[in-house]
Amino acid sequence: MSSISVLLPVAATSDPSSLHRAHQSISEQTTPPAEVLLVTNQSLTDDIGTAIRDLVSTDPDSRHEHIPDAQGLGGVLQAGLKKCTEPFVARMDADDISEPKRFAEQLTVLKETEADIVGSHLAEFYDDPEQPERTRKVPTSHDEIAEWMPWRCPMNHPTTMFDREAVLNAGGYRDFPMMEDWDLWARCLAAGLQFRNLDQTLVRAQIDELVDRRGGLDYAKAELRMARELRELGIATHQDTLQHLCLRIPPRLLPPVVRNVIYHLFAR
Q: Which residues belong to any copy of the Glycosyltransferase 2-like domain (predicted)?
């Protein structure tokens, strides 16, 4: 058994079949995790509640933690992170599929290099996991990742595995709506943690209506808040901030059809 915890938040609206598919991809890992932590903070529908109970009852390494006072996704992830018992934590969402060698390859990097956080490219699909729409590619070296950080999130959150203690010491997750991951990575970079992305596509993610959720005034406000934080952390220069705001805010305010075209061209 490995030294990996899987941190998997489950929303009340999660699809039970997708959750089972995600969990199956975990069980098929060549290096299986020591535990799978399913974390919730909402009242669950009967269907998703039954799916979680089924997974926990049939897999002795899976458990469910319901944390009703956790605020937002960041609060759920931080509460779950604190309850993980293994030194390395792999992130997944309830509609993701991890490739069989994902955990083995990422664990090797964390154990044999200076990296504290490791991710990969991410394939996105609508209905058929075997027919991805696009691949969100990210920089691979720490220096390249640091260069991206001031204006674009350089890690695909559902692909990451990290040193639990190092991330907690950097402050862990917090309630930072719509930017929980970028917020965490920026603070980890400022704290001196080392990053790496494998030049492989190790996770497939379902993206139903993702583009529509990425737009609107709330997202524009989140971009402003993120830009301000990057300046306060000393990661972004004035020029970086200008580039960030000019490149990322206008698409948030465009009509969904236009935003969809831009997203397909640039994959975030």
A: 16-163
Reported as type and span, the H/E element at residue 107 is helix 102-112
CA distance 178 to 218: 9
Written as six digits, the tokens of 161 are: 């595995």
Q: What residues contact 112, with CB distance under 8 A and at least 6 apart?
A: none
Sorted by where each starts, the structural domains of the chain and their CATH numbers stand as: 4-208 (3.90.550.10), 210-268 (no CATH)
Indicate the helix (H) or strand (E) that contains 202: strand 195-206
Task: Give me the helix-helix angle, 16-27 and 46-58, nearest 10°.
Answer: 20
pLDDT of residue 212: 44
Q: Which residues of 27-62 are buried (b: 16+ CB within 10 A; e: fewer)?
A: eebebbbbbbbbbbbeebeeebbebbeebeeeeebb
The CA distance from 204 to 97, in Å, is 5
Window from 112-121, 219-228, 245-254 with minimum mean pLDDT: 245-254
Question: What tens digit of pLDDT does each residue of 91-150 get?
Answer: 999 999 999 999 999 999 999 999 999 999 999 998 899 999 899 999 999 999 999 999
